[in-house]
Amino acid sequence: MIGPETVLAALTLHLEHVLVVGAGLFSIGLYLALSKRNAIGILMGVELMLNAVNVTLLAFARFVESPRPLDGQVFATFVITIAAAEAAVALALAVAIYRHRETVNIDEIDVLRW
Amino acid sequence: VIEDNAIVIAFWSLSATTIICALMVATVRNLVHSVLFLALTFVGVAGIYIVLSADFVAVVQVLIYAGAVGVLMTFAIMLTPGADRLNASTAFQAPALVLGVMVFVLITWVAYDTEWRISDRGAFTTTAASLGEAFLRPYIVPFEVASVLLATAMIGAIVLSREEHDDRA
Hints:
The complex is a heterodimer of chains A (114) and B (169).
Chain A: H1 4-10, H2 15-35, H3 39-63, H4 71-101
Helix pairs in contact in A: 2-3, 3-4
Chain B: H1 5-27, H2 31-51, H3 55-78, H4 93-113, H5 128-136, H6 140-161
């Protein structure tokens, strides 16, 4: 008979589980970035994708054999830094475009279209 | 492999919260609500970092993502008052959905198909001190480049979003 003790004893966390959660976050971010109409919505998708990549990096740092296991965390910190810089520039771009065109909808910003 | 029950349960509840909040970002009607759910997602991801024994990165995540990026996005929405607040999709919604599902299936398949070289090193004890050591010794050049990049991005953001005054008079 399976009691709660057996279920609790079977609870383990493998690298693959974390990778699947990261993949889920990445897919949602990809969907947001490709489908949203508002430029700020697209940026949210990009940030979600960067977060998903960080989750996988930290999972590899925690679980996988390596001579320098902390390098994954160093890399994740760099990713966060670059993401912050990217967010600042992209949001400034959105505000600048809004000032000229009164919209941030990407399907209305089509001056390069011929 | 983590076998501590509390950590495993914490991981799955945090993951469920994070994924649900991320789905809410994609589905809620109002863009402001979307940003708030995004901030919740960032906090959930910080929790996952703690489960993976990355305490320093988790604190950085809360400070920069949940704090700075969240506020920045709220600002961007507030500074574009005439734009519509609808969290609407373009005509690419269906292809994007298909592509997202395909990417998810692909990564999951690769994750389970690969023979990972799993170590039994266990959790990191403290990471902040060793991370500081790593930043200032082997990674000193990327560290400096990142600081130059941050300064450039800051100046660029100020220049781009500044009100244009007519100085010619």
